[in-house]
Amino acid sequence: MTDQHISQQRTEQQQGYDERSALTHGVKRRLTSASWLARGASVGLSCVSIGFVMLFMFVLETGGDLTLFTRPLPMQIALMLPYLIAFLTIGTTAGTLLAWRYRYWSLTARIHQTLLALLGLVFSWQLSTLGFLPL
Amino acid sequence: MTRARLSTTGDSTGNATRRSFIAGLGSLGFVAIGTVAGRTSATTDSRNTDTQPGEGPFTNSDELETFVDNVMAERLGTTTPGATVAIVSGDSPMLTKGYGAADVDTDVPVRADETVFRVGSVGKLVTYTAVMQGVEQGVLDLDTDINSYLGDSAVTVSATYDDPVTLRHLGTHTAGFESKIDPDIVADPAALDSLEALLTDQQPSRIRPPGELVGYSNYGAALAGHVVAKAHDTTFEKYVQSELFEPLNMTHSTFAQPVPDDQPGDRAAPHVRDGESFLVADDVYINMRPAGSLSATATDMATFMRAHLGNGAVNDRRILDTETAETMHSRHHVRHPAVTNWRYGFHEYGDPHANLIGHSGATVNFTSYLLLAPDHDIGIFVAFNSNPSEGPKAVVDETVAEYELQQAPTTPTPTSRPGGQERAETVASEYSLTYFPQSGPLQVVDLLEHLTVEPAANGRLRTTTLEGDARQWVETEPYVYEEVGGHDVLAFEVTNGEVDVLNMNSEPTGVYQPVPFHERQLITGGVLGTALSGFSLSLVGWGGHSACRQWKQYRTDEGSSMEDSE
Question: Which of A28, B93, B352, B385 is the most buried (most CB within 10 A)?
């Protein structure tokens, strides 16, 4: 093996370390970044809310009405999602307050975040009215 | 001769998906949603109003058999793969006959005297008959706090209200327990609990003072069965076996689950619809056994009906004294004089003045209906081994019409009392039924079943449901409205200009109460729809934004790499 080969291999290894390090650093940075968490909560809220409705309807359609009573695993998972929605609503709402307080993002993004928080709150309220959340 | 016109209310052409959802829930050992089909019974041909009811069109059982054969021929293979029918007149069975397949896989035919069907909540009539035996013997009393019978039991009814829950409340579904719809159905018989443990673990909240409003309760029926067992120091199943089934020689009847292998007879398999055909489904087991685990043949149910029509006895076999049977068949709870009310365990059917009493039943994939016409000594029992939207009650309806057991409806005469339009405005609202759960995910059923009442012209009312059941009503007395073209009646109870309850004749298992504004269908649907639209648009926006950024990045990278290569 020539010096050139060894040098190239070291460079590749270094690049690999750098990428992993950057990734770890990126994840850490995001997990400790309030603005990123605020946006993440609103993305999560949107995904989980739609996912809940789709999964609930899918289980009812495929497993029949009995699934509401015998509660197989997919129905159990579906019925756990409203709790996650409530948690993400709290996160989105808290993120909205921080966004206005510390002026995260653009004005448009903040207004969007606020709308999502409001939608999360009314969605959770109706989930509670329908008995999916024992509030 | 009057024939019921079926499906005239538009129920049968409603939304199939929603129907299957609701029908499935309705099938779970409780009657209420079965009245979707039941309302069709209310509509009869009004051309025959001159005919006196009860004359009876059948001079012999052959004519009856031909009639029932025709009624069942319309349904076999399309509505249900199999059915079993018993019609008794006085002290003798007029007809007991099986139809179609007990099991489509094996093609075993249904035999009335051999094929055992799960009859669901019709079994509650057996449970309440057992209660009345205890009353007759003096070991039970209809007006005593049931906690006094549960001294050595882990089950105790909480003292939420001053008035205690009594057996009269349980037999009329007025105990005020919150409904859970689900009689604790399990897919695995190993998951069945003891009745005592179940009643302790699954105890619902008391949400209304006892004796006030009807709210169908499987828990209440199961509790009544437990009280019977405790009063006689045995199990419910053993008591019923020795004190009801054996004396009546109902050899094919049992509350045991699964039906024991040594039980005589065949078992009808449950079926689900699969396109144009039927598939055998897995059976389910009902933990609240006195509320709905009875399996029986049509022949056994004929004997049970004969015992009730015979005021407690079949030939020399007696299960109740005449006086006790009469007490059981008399009214125990009046919702409103203008609508169907509650006897003990039985509810009234159709025209509240016709003295017809019955009960429907079902498990997930079985349905049944039992009707007694004590004034005419006629009993009708029909069971299907499937759970279609138009179940056995439709067969009973046709038979009732054929027998002319109730007057055909007349055109309602509007009340002469002024102020009809104001009263119509007063009662306009959205209403929900008491027998739906007030907590848990099944509340969604309550939402879907709301009834909307709106004023129409000339003091009339118009009612609608999400399912598309739209009906017109004429006010015949203040706050009492009769259906145009049907037997159904709405009776409102109004205090100081506010509706307390709405009683619907065809819904004996509950009463309607006004829904708060924020729980109305339009609000809930609007909020949920808006929220989901907002979430969806956001995801689409984020996705588009991210794709756009990546595309720009790609173009930038490509541009710089071309510059490098140059």
Answer: B385
pLDDT tens sequence across B443-477: 887 888 899 999 998 889 999 998 788 999 999 99
Note whether B126 and B294 are within 8 A (CB).
Answer: yes
Cα B70 from Cα B502, distance rounded (Å): 38
* Three-class SS state of B188: coil
Residue A83 lies in a domain: yes
Q: Is B76 on the interface with A (CB under 8 A)?
A: no
Sign of the CA dihedral with B304 first, then B307, B313, and B315 last? negative
Q: Are residues A38 and A1 in the same domain?
A: no
Locate B108 and state its tokens: 């075993």
CA torsion angle B5 B10 B16 B18 (round to 10):
-120
- The mean pLDDT of chain B is 86
| pLDDT for residue B83 is more than 70 | yes
Range 426-485 of B in CB contact (< 8 A) with A: 437-444, 447
Cβ-nearest to A130 among B272, B444, B530: B444
- Asked whether residue A101 is assigned to any structural domain, the reply reads yes
Note whether A68 contacts B186, CB cutoff 8 Å.
no
Tell me how crowded residue B69 is: count the other CB atoms within 10 A of its CB: 14
Shared domain for A44 and A106, answered yes or no, is: yes
**Which tens digit of pLDDT belongs to each residue from A56-74?**
989 888 876 667 777 889 9
Do A88 and A117 belong to one domain?
yes
Give the pLDDT score at B51: 36
Q: Is residue A94 part of a domain?
A: yes
B248-283 per-position pLDDT tens digit: 999 999 999 999 999 999 999 999 988 889 999 988
The residue segments making up the domain with residue A18 are: 1-32
Q: What single DSSP character describes residue B470?
A: -
Residue B540 CA: distances (Å) to CA of A105, A122, B511: 19, 21, 45
C-beta atoms of A79 and B441 within 8 A: yes
| CA A92 – CA B393 distance, rounded (Å) | 52
Q: Which of A66, A77, A132, A133 has the highest number of chain B CBs within 10 A, making it the mutation to test binding with B?
A: A66
Assign B374 to helix, strand or coil.
coil
Q: Do B185 and A60 touch (CB under 8 A)?
A: no
> Using alpha carbons only, what angle is made at residue A88 by residues A84 and A93, rounded to the nearest 5 degrees?
150
Runs of H (alpha helix) within B342-437: 392-403, 420-427
Distance CA B154, CA B551 (A): 69
- Clarify whether residues A120 and A70 are in a common domain: yes
Q: Are residues A59 and A123 in the same domain?
A: yes
From chain B, the residues in CB contact with A122 under 8 A are 527, 530-531
A134 part of a folded domain: no
User: Cβ A130–B185 below 8 Å, yes or no?
Assistant: no
Shortest distance, CA A34 to any CA of chain B (angstroms): 19
A119 shares a domain with A54: yes
Entry pTM: 0.81
| Beta carbons of B56 and B403 less than 8 angstroms apart | yes
Q: What's the CA gap between A115 and A117, in Å, rounded?
A: 5
**In the predicted structure, residue B565 carries a pLDDT above the cut 90:** no
One domain, residues A73 and A16: no
Residues A41 and A106 in one domain: yes
How far is CA B451 from its chain centroid? 17
* Domains of chain A: total: 2
